[in-house]
Design a protein that fits this description.
The protein has 5 helices and no strands.
Length: 115
């Protein structure tokens, strides 16, 4: 009987590591989603970055159209600028950049209650 209780109490280090990796990955995913979503919101909001750039308020349809055109142009120009061997590293930087942006948006939402 003593052996069964000792085995039940023992935790496997691999399991703890897996849980920590899952939790860290999940938190990173949440931050990335907040970063991408918050950036898109800031970009196409009626008083957002595009409206400020163009000097007036935009309706959502024109803001979305301009944002899509801008993303398409950026992707088209950037495809030849990044060497094939560096593309994975550039992609990693974008992921972590959006994670940091997500952390900033979450902090701002926590302090102000708005983006």
């Amino acid at each position: 009987m003593a052996r069964v209780s000792e085995e039940g109490k023992a935790t496997h280090p691999g399991m703890v590591r897996s849980v920590l990796q899952f939790t860290g990955g999940f938190l990173l995913l949440v931050l990335i989603m907040l970063g991408v979503g918050g950036t898109i919101y800031k970009l196409i909001a009626p008083e957002g970055w595009l409206a400020q750039l163009l000097g007036g308020s935009l309706n959502y349809l024109s803001a979305i159209a301009l944002a899509l055109v801008g993303v398409g142009m950026f992707a088209w120009f950037a495809q030849d600028q990044v060497a094939q061997t560096r593309r994975d590293k550039v992609g990693d930087w974008w992921v972590y950049l959006f994670a940091v942006a997500g952390l900033a948006y979450a902090w701002q939402f926590f302090l102000r209650g708005t983006l």
